[in-house]
TrEMBL record:
Region spans: Interaction with tRNA: 155-157, 309-310
Top-level taxon: Bacteria
Binding site residues for ATP: A9, M10, S11, G12, G13, V14, D15, S16, M35, G127
Protein name: tRNA-specific 2-thiouridylase MnmA
Pfam families tied to this protein: tRNA_Me_trans, tRNA_Me_trans_C, tRNA_Me_trans_M
One term under GO cellular component: cytoplasm
Site positions (Interaction with tRNA): H128, Q342
PANTHER family the record matches: MITOCHONDRIAL TRNA-SPECIFIC 2-THIOURIDYLASE 1 (PTHR11933:SF5), TRNA 5-METHYLAMINOMETHYL-2-THIOURIDYLATE -METHYLTRANSFERASE (PTHR11933)
GO molecular function, one term: tRNA binding
Organism of provenance: Deinococcus peraridilitoris (strain DSM 19664 / LMG 22246 / CIP 109416 / KR-200)
Family of this protein: Belongs to the MnmA/TRMU family.
Top-level EC class: transferase
Role summary: Catalyzes the 2-thiolation of uridine at the wobble position (U34) of tRNA, leading to the formation of s(2)U34.
Amino acid sequence: MSKGRVLCAMSGGVDSSVSAALLKEQGYEVIGAMMRFWPDNKRTDTFDSCCSPDAAYEARRVADQVGVPFYLLDYRDEFKRNIMDPFIADYAAGRTPNPCVNCNTKVKFDALVKKARMLGCEYVATGHYVKRVDREDGPNGEKRVEFHRGDDPRKDQTYFLWGTPRDALAHIIFPVGEMEKPRVRELAEQHGLITAQKPESQNICFVPGTVKEFVSEFIPQKGGPIAEIRTGEVVGEHLGTQFYTLGQKKGLGLFKTHEVRFVVHLDPDTNTVWVGDYEDCQWHGLKARSANYLLDLASLPRELDVQVRYRATPVRARVVQADEAGFELEFYEPQFAVAPGQSVVLYDGPRLLGGGLIEDHSRMLPALRWPKKRAPLTLSR
């Protein structure tokens, strides 16, 4: 007897390929599906890793090997509206976005879960390294589902899933979430899957070359001043605020090249890049917007672990304030170069609790002080 119908999201990579094979072995009725993101007029150097026409071909071949049907689902409009357009808008506003978080939040675990229900599927499965934990210890014995860090700390992907709609948790499963990557490749070899040795994709799927090159196609390049955050002294010229990130210290174009400065604030409204010393780039806390919680807000711990970027070591923080819209945290130890637009993700040990988008500090900025022998640049307004 079937354990239920599951829509397995297949990217053409080894993790989702093994997920489909395992689900079939475990007795699920599996439907393979890939979300089409690339446009008809896609550039030859974009969408060439995951989510590409070649990847779709490989995913279809894996579905044939496993013996499950495969469908290519059209999500081009959703991807442009929810991923690509906000990506450009964030850089224009001086933020550093994470498109993979948006993709999981608004497309894979929202739109795709809804599509799965329309197809009569009880579950959506993905190849994420995330552990699903089922509990039956609610006040009245009710069941609940938690997401926990994957068992392979090098591959844990819970950071990207904080925005998952809470009502979708029970409908998502992760067949490889409790495995390490070498074991996944071993299983792929055992099943004879064509993706067994396929290398991992590391780049943003829709960005050819560098992010700087991509962003420059959409946001006009306009030079402006680089100024000291404490004094307002103009100490250099930049090429456009969209080309800089918090914490950056190389390639700043300072007049005095021997000085060590870090980007501490980006102000597109005045077209100014503000720099300072290491201490100026330390964050003692943060505010987050667009919050999403995977538990009742009243149950949110007052002290928890937070992660402010993927690959960052979790740090301890105190919840100063939290509501449905956002929250404020105070770090026990200052954190360097916390980037507005990135995600701050909340944990209780291994359990994923939710997260939000980091807001910039509100600052009292000094007036610009220009060098005596250098004419002021024209600022955008």
